[in-house]
Recover the amino acids of this structure.
């Protein structure tokens, strides 16, 4: 609004102009009559009409603006388009798989949809430009893939390339880290025969996204310049036919990339190893990080070599060639890379054992060639309840669902809290495959869906419904505070509520419900406020 000092000159000028007109036509009776008529009759009604038309135009603009906002919100929810700036390409996600799409196709769909919605015809091209702009702000790697997409990618990696789902997830997390340029100083040691598999992966990533060499830190040989601290070991199946692998990548290449970045966004590869895998896999992967060169040799010697006291004139010995074979056989049996060069190995062993230079032999040496289940059963007995389906209510039906990896995490936490002698080991790491086997064997009546979801059970350690309900109440308060600040009362997407929940709960709670359960609970709890299948009407938080 203008200040009085700014308005006054305008007012004075208007009055001055009227005086000027009166002076000009002072001697002209007819023009004086016309001037008075226009000032007293025409000008007031003209200004009143102008004001009414302005208000109508403003109301129309506000109406169209709100309709446009809703149209854009619904369109982008139902048509999940994304963009990558590095290759200027658009992508579409249908809830199952990702695909590249031309901008022309997006615009055609946009204009067709707007034409069906006659309200926005006046703003047809303005709306199109606005939506394309918003799509370009939606980075492909900010999209959270649905469980079906994630499981499809994992099914194509396990057991084809990896022995467990967690190994497949770890591999994906590494690829995601490399795309996002996280932990670039790590070295991942692989079998030389795996290189051809990675070359095909590099190719498909470049073709679909424009990113180059996402496996740059996968090395087929250990080099003495590498620090043990920065080395990780990957065991990938090298028996897969390369043509089969090419076919798999052709089908899921872009999905694999997006799932990889999704896993990396959740936690980097080292955090994944620390928090989400069983002890065996962790120890194997971090073998070099957790063991010095001396420790590696200690284990080799303890496993493969035994010192003896021998007083005969012809001592028992192992020649270097056979000793070297023992070493290679040992690391092969443990699926380890050759992290000690031959000459280094020989030098170190010569310091440990008596050595004869003449025969190139080591003297006076010879060579020879589970409590987690009990803990898990105790954990199940103490914390898990199996629901009675004949008396189950709708709330219980929502509550009684746990992912296998959630049970693994709960079990690990439970073990760490136990002080009783009933717990045979303080090692709470267990893999998903073992948990499924335990449940199927000892609790055959418990239903497991897709080898991922255990149905109709609840756990005393984690009340999911209570957690989600608490953060829904926090979200209502948050929305009402924003409303008081004048924030638009637009539809609230499920994604926005879930993102708020994740952001708030992660600093205080290591257990976060998955999107599947969260949305199922929203459908139950907010059934009367849901619109367009993925949005909540703001009336929901008004009522609180």
């Amino acid at each position: 609004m203008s200040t009085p000092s700014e308005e006054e000159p305008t007012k004075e000028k208007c009055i001055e102009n009227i005086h000027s007109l009166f002076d000009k036509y002072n001697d002209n009776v007819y023009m004086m009559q016309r001037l008075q008529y226009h000032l007293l009759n025409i000008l007031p009604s003209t200004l009143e009409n102008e004001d009414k038309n302005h208000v109508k135009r403003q109301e129309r603009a506000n109406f169209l603006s709100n309709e446009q906002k809703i149209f854009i919100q619904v369109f982008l929810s139902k048509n999940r388009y994304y963009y990558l700036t590095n290759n200027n390409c658009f992508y579409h996600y249908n809830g199952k798989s990702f695909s590249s799409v031309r901008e022309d196709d997006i615009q055609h769909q946009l204009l067709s949809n707007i034409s069906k919605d006659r309200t926005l015809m006046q703003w047809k091209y303005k709306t199109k430009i606005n939506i394309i702009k918003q799509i370009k702000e939606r980075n492909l790697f900010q999209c959270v893939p649905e469980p079906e997409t994630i499981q499809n990618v994992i099914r194509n990696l396990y057991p084809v390339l990896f022995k467990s789902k967690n190994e497949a997830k770890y591999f994906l997390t590494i690829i995601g880290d490399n795309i996002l340029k996280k932990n670039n100083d790590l070295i991942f040691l692989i079998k030389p025969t795996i290189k051809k598999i990675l070359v095909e992966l590099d190719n498909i990533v470049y073709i679909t996204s424009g990113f180059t060499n996402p496996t740059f830190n996968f090395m087929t040989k250990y080099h003495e310049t590498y620090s043990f601290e920065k080395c990780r070991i990957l065991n990938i199946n090298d028996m897969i036919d390369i043509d089969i692998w090419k076919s798999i990548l052709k089908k899921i290449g872009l999905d694999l990339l997006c799932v990889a970045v999704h896993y990396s966004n959740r936690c980097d590869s080292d955090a994944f190893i620390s928090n989400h895998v069983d002890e065996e896999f962790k120890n194997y992967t971090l073998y070099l990080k957790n063991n010095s060169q001396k420790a590696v040799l200690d284990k080799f010697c303890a496993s493969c070599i035994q010192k003896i006291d021998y007083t005969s004139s012809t001592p028992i010995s192992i020649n270097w060639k056979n000793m070297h074979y023992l070493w290679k056989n040992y690391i092969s049996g443990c699926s380890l890379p050759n992290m000690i060069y031959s000459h280094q190995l020989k030098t170190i062993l010569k310091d440990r054992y008596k050595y004869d230079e003449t025969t190139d032999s080591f003297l006076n040496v010879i060579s020879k060639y589970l409590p987690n289940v009990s803990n898990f059963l105790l954990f199940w007995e103490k914390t898990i309840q199996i629901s009675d389906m004949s008396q189950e209510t709708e709330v219980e039906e929502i509550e009684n669902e746990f992912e296998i990896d959630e049970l693994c995490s709960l079990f690990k936490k439970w073990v760490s809290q136990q002080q009783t002698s009933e717990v045979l080991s303080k090692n709470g790491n267990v893999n998903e495959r073992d948990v499924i086997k335990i449940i199927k064997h000892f609790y055959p009546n418990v239903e497991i869906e897709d080898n991922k979801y255990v149905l109709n059970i609840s756990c005393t350690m984690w009340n999911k419904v209570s957690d989600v309900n608490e953060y829904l109440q926090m979200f209502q308060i948050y929305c009402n505070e924003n409303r008081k600040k004048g924030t638009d009362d637009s539809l609230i997407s499920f994604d926005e509520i879930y993102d708020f929940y994740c952001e708030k709960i992660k600093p205080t709670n290591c257990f976060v419900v998955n999107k599947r359960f969260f949305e199922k609970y929203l459908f139950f709890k907010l059934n009367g406020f849901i619109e367009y299948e993925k949005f909540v009407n703001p009336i929901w938080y008004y009522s609180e």
Summary: The first helix runs from residue 4 to 24.
